[in-house]
Every structure is written in C-alpha cells, then in structure tokens.
Specification:
Helix content: 55-70%
Number of helices: 3
Distance between the termini: 33 Å
Amino acid sequence: MQTGSIKQKAYRILDNLPDKATWDDLMYQIYVRQAIEAGIKESKEGRTVEVKEVRKRFGLLK
C-alpha cells in the first residue's frame, strides 16, 4: 500500500476534502486512512481472526 510518500498521501486527502472542512474532518480522514492501511498490512501478514472465532470469543450467536 506504500504508493507515494506520506506527504503525497496527505495532499490527496486534503484535495478530496470540501472547502468548508474542519480540522476534525481532516483528522478523521487521516485516522481512517491509517486504520485501513494498518488493517491491510495485518491481513497480508496473516494476522486475522475468522468471524466464527470472534463470535465465539464474545459469546455472540450466529
């Protein structure tokens, strides 16, 4: 997922925000981007848990 520098990615995020965006909007977009990239990295490294196992751990049915 490392296509371009962090600076380039930040510019893309800024370019996609509306003109009336707030600092909170920007921070949220950065957080979401980081969370997605971290999840993709973990998945590629095989560090995932099946849905069945998550449900079992939390005592959820179906």
